[in-house]
Amino acid sequence: MDLDGAIAWITSDADEMSSLLGDAEPDQPVPTCPGWSAADLSRHIAGGFSAWYLYNISTPAEDWTPEGLMARMATVTDDHRANVQTFRAAATEFTNLCAQLDLDEPTWSFGSIEPARWWVRRAAVELTVHLTDAAGMHGRRASTTRERHAEAVDETTMEMFPRMAAVTATMNVVTGGDSAVPDPPDRPAALVTDDTDRAWTFTRAADGTTRTIRGLGGDVLAVGRASSADVLAWLWGRPMTTPLTIDGDADLLDEWNLFQRSPL
Predict the structure, then answer these.
(1) In degrees rounded to 5, what are phi and psi of residue 79?
(2) Which stretches in the chain have pLDDT values below 70?
(3) Cβ atoms within 10 A of the Cβ of 109, count?
């Protein structure tokens, strides 16, 4: 997906998110996130965009510090209505920065260095996942397209799975926790999105880290198939409309769901 497509993605999902959160009472439960209320969701997404994504995309790699990130996070309040407005303004600022910044500049990316444009799709994916949560509060599904859901699956598996150790370490800093990193299985498996005809194969590299390749490998021992929306829901632990159709070892496929295995 090109930059214009990613900006359009964030803009449309942010509009829908703002409307859904704005129509919710602060104590309204979020069915897809047991124990969360609308206020918890608005605080999380407001902090994500006003602090996490704005800081990471605009801070040169050599200037990035955990303290700088945490200082931005500390500005988010517990006021649900204010957080909805904070999110809306931050999402607009983020998309404006996408058009203004040199997105080839190096930025911090979970312990490694990536061009600033890396954060554009990451922001879109997190927004889409939480849009599912916001829509669930109102008993309906988000309007994100299947192509965008498939892009979210691609980003999750290609970018985030191989960074699980660094993601875990970063979240331990942010939350003060001591979560362990799930080890990837030593046997390959794959996911397929039937409605977009895309596939991803997961293997463990010699150094013990995850290696994801696009396409369906010939030696996989488990293949899970579903719509792009349901594959994304499975990856992120959200309710599915239709369960995965699994060819092969179902337990192995579950072991490859690194996000659901992680205590983050």
Answers:
(1) -85, 110
(2) 172-175, 261-264
(3) 19
